[in-house]
Specification:
- The complex is a heterodimer of chains A (about 300) and B (about 280).
- By secondary structure, chain A is an all-alpha fold.
- Chain A contains 12 helices and no strands.
- Chain A is flat and about 75 Å long.
- The chains are: A mainly alpha (about 300), B mainly alpha (about 280).
Chain lengths: ~300, ~280
Amino acid sequence: MPAPRSRLARQRIRAAWWMLAPMLIVLLGVAGWPLARTIWLGFTEAGLADVEAPRFIGLTNYVYLLQDPDWWRAVRNTAVFAGASVALETALGLIIALSLNAHFRGRGALRAAILVPWAIPTVVSAQMWRWMFNDVFGVINHVLLAVHAIDTPIAWTASPDTALLSIILVDVWKTTPFMALLLLAGLQMLPQECFESARVDGVHPLKVFFRITLPLLKPALTVAIIFRVLDALRVFDLVYVISGNNRDTMSMSVYARQQLVDFQDVGYGSAAATLVFAIIALFTVIYLSASRAGREL
Amino acid sequence: MRRTPQYWIGRLAFWLLLAVIAFYSVFPFYWAIVTSLKSGSALFSVDAWPQHPAWDNYRAVFREQPFGRNILNSIIVAVSTVVLSLALAVAAAYALGRVQFRGRRLLLFVVLGVSMFPQVAVLSGMFELIRSLGLYNHLPALTLSYLIFTLPFTVWVLTTFMRELPKELEEAAIVDGTGPLTIVTHIFLPLMGPALVTTGLLAFIAAWNEFLFALTFTLSGEQRTVPVAIALISGASSHELPWGNIMAASVIVTVPLIILVLVFQRRIVSGLTAGAVKG
């Protein structure tokens, strides 16, 4: 705004608040209020039938929650899922992004092809892979048996040893495109001069990658990774569709929903949901400061 | 210039890598199409293409459950979510992108923060809200709850877009004392076509794919949206899932989405990266 606050400028600011009001009211209604209620319900013994006037019981829910081995298993599952899937997605995404950054015929077609997994609804990709992972009729066992990689069919999604792995593999397939596109955008913003002079000097491509590309890409990489970690920590659809409320694979979100809806224990489930929120809020703060740091570079 | 053998090996390896990437991306969906065209016992044999392609599964999907209704539900919910989000976000983006006032940065951070909310964190509060509004097991419950993830995103991207438009655009109008609502509808809206298409499309896809709220806030088969219907298709017993039907349903809801994405490829890529990288 130019000069001192004129009458016109004040008017404009007042008008701005009017334009903002509907969005703020809706956001308060669908995000702020429900979140506040969830946090409050976490301190009560509300059930699904009587949410109106639940009794306040302090931290009791949290005490039970922290003693429940199933909760800790859900935390562990979620951590393994987030760590493994984001690591794999980053590695694969980087390979795809570097390939797409090269010049070759059919580049547009390949970029379109990698968008396919991204466009498919999560529930649908879960079902598609569940079918491919099928122990008796699945194409994956069929191929592995045919090339003698395994002797007996594996019950990929049912066996406790491989269920979480299967879920991770589906997530990697589904979200690597997103990672690849973010990294590709990052790559295309890098200054070309460094690469030119490295090429003229005959520096080995691997050395170029580790000494030039990777350090320059670090801000974009950090933001993309944290973005994906936040998403992975709240995973629900994939886990629920592939193995339901199975304890071996249950994520934190699946745990909280099971308590809330299936066991109708709104108070206890809300406490679990609040903890999920707190964990993700912590990562969000890290994300916000990282992206701000990225912008200042 | 003579090419060394190493050069050709390198080229070959590169094209091989590209082929693997393409195969990996596309094969699962191809396999879903193949499966959906197999009927009876053909389903249980592994062929690259069905020997007798048949549409039986596609007919069965619509016969055995209200799948047509589910598709309609998904369209209603996704379209209403997009329209509401865009209307609210355009107004808000004007204020956040074009007017300097105290608290603007804080508001933007709050909006960005909301987009990180885990859906499960608002589940019980939202459930309570929806029941008290009498919307449980009705589609408006989904439209309302979906705003929690579409609104922050649309506000954020449209604000970024508005901020980058030249200042001269509205200077004359401001001096003339034109109201902000008129400025938005007459000056900015005509320029915002591409941005609206991108954000609208991304919001549509997010709403179309949503599962947790749809699963929790609807009860009857008639009110379900597509993802819930596909997740809950079941056969005679839990060990005998009708895979042909599931794949047919999956193909039906995915094909339009893939066409949309391929048509608007460039827009989507720039929208996704604007949402994340600039955030």
